[in-house]
Write a structure and sequence with these properties.
heterodimer, A: 318 residues, mainly alpha, 2 domains, 12 helices, 0% strand, B: 118 residues, Helix Hairpins, 4 helices, 75% helix
């Protein structure tokens, strides 16, 4: 199924269809992740791939063109040849790979057993993914958050600055559709509540800052699409979002510095309370909060900038 | 599980990866290239998650009734990779929007033509 969807992406020229198919493709792979027991990953992929990426790509399409132009140079066979040869080499490589689900595969021999056996005593959280994410591999995650923050800054530099605010034409709102308005009024609080649940329940079930941030962002994006950019910017000002992007990273880094000051290593949460397990709990909570804030702020501001651009270039054409 | 079936997932991964690769190198439309890159990226996610699967294992959330869990480490890596992926995709799309504003097109050939005519 995944393969079929991916193939159709190659052959179609209507970019709108391609983007929609890509959303379906993401949702399918989220389903695949569930069958592979990776519930956290599935949750993220469903929210990010099928939700936010699709919305952003649609935003780009609105700003550019819907159709792919037919290339004037005749299609060459070289790319196809390169792809087939590379593929065959990779297939040859897989012959040495351990087969699916083999418990003796090398990947299951190294640090993974330790995470599974000892994380409960050392970190005290049922969800191993959260323990590894926020505690054992806290440095990595801090790096990821900084990457997201940087990407947010990049979009801000490319699209957010330079527009003249006074002459912005707002895109038509959908607020006059009664059904949309009523349903979204009912849905948005529920989505926000669900995001908070994911945020704070990540220690026990699938979830955490990354997923919660994206779902929270999706709720605001829904609001923006129904009620228009102007009202959404009144609700959450872009300046506030810009600060929050930084605040999230600061909370994360600050937790690390705090543990340093308390005499531990950077991001060693044991020092945060008398009982190491409580310390781990506080630390992970703080770090996940930082992740959630940054991700939310970046997702919403990226969407705002894309929408804001749309109204400006619409004006240019008039 | 027989050895051919055991490797089936890897072959799907390679197929998806090559489809994404083909889209990136053979198509001139920048948005389509980004979609291709994303397909490539997803294939890598699937590769990692496939490796983390253990037969009869449950999702890695500790519970007294379960003894075998799938490997949590690839899940963590991919989880963050997905979110970073959307952030970088957004950056790529922002670049495309700016290119469109400057050149009036998102087709690679037309952009090259305009560059050469300068």
């Amino acid at each position: 199924m995944l393969a079929a969807t991916a193939l159709s992406v190659v052959f179609l020229r209507d970019l709108f269809t391609i983007v929609m198919l890509f959303g379906i493709y993401s949702l399918l792979s989220a389903g695949f992740f569930v069958t592979m027991d990776a519930v956290d990953v599935a949750l993220t992929e469903a929210a990010v791939g099928a939700g936010v990426t699709t919305v952003l790509m649609l935003g780009t399409l609105a700003l550019t063109s819907r159709k792919e132009k037919i290339s004037r140079t005749p299609p060459s066979m070289i790319p196809l040849g390169v792809v087939v040869v590379t593929g065959l080499v990779l297939v040859y490589g897989t012959l040495d790979m351990p087969s699916l689900g083999d418990p003796d595969a090398p990947i299951h021999q190294h640090v993974a057993p330790r995470y599974i056996e000892q994380s409960y005593e050392e970190v005290g959280m049922p969800n191993i993914v959260t323990s590894v994410l926020a505690s054992y591999r806290g440095y990595d995650t801090l790096g990821e958050v900084v990457v997201i923050f940087t990407a947010g800054l990049g979009v801000l530099t490319l699209l957010g600055i330079g527009g003249d605010d006074r002459h912005r034409v707002r895109p038509p709102e959908m607020a006059h559709h009664l059904v949309l308005r009523v349903i979204s009024r009912a849905m948005i609080p529920l989505i926000l509540l669900y995001a908070l649940y994911i945020q704070f329940h990540g220690d026990y079930g699938p979830g955490g800052g990354f997923q919660a941030g994206v779902i929270f962002g999706a709720a605001i994006i829904l609001y923006t699409m129904i009620f228009g950019l102007a009202k959404a910017e009144q609700l959450i000002s872009p300046l506030f979002l810009r600060y929050m992007m930084g605040v999230g990273v600061l909370i994360y880094g600050g937790t690390g510095v705090l543990t340093l000051l308390l005499g531990g290593n950077f991001l060693d949460y044991d020092t945060l309370a008398h009982d190491p397990l409580h310390g781990q709990h506080y630390g992970i909570l703080a770090v996940e909060l930082g992740v959630g804030i940054t991700v939310t702020a970046v997702v919403i501001s990226i969407f705002f900038y894309f929408t804001g651009r749309g109204s400006q270039s619409g004006e240019d054409e008039q | 599980m027989s050895s051919t079936l055991g490797l089936y997932n890897y072959w799907i991964v390679i197929f998806l990866m090559m489809v994404g690769f083909y889209v990136v190198i053979a198509h001139g439309n920048l948005i389509k290239k980004v979609v291709g890159l994303n397909i490539f990226q997803t294939s890598v996610f699937i590769l990692y998650i496939t490796m983390g699967k253990v037969d009869g294992g449950a999702a890695p959330i500790l519970d007294d009734a379960v003894t075998v869990y799938s490997n949590p480490l690839p899940h963590v890596l991919i989880l963050t990779a997905i979110v970073v992926g959307v952030a970088t995709t957004a950056l790529a799309l922002a670049l495309i929007v700016r290119i469109r504003e400057e050149y009036g097109t998102v087709e690679e050939e037309e952009i090259h033509e305009q560059d050469e005519s300068l």
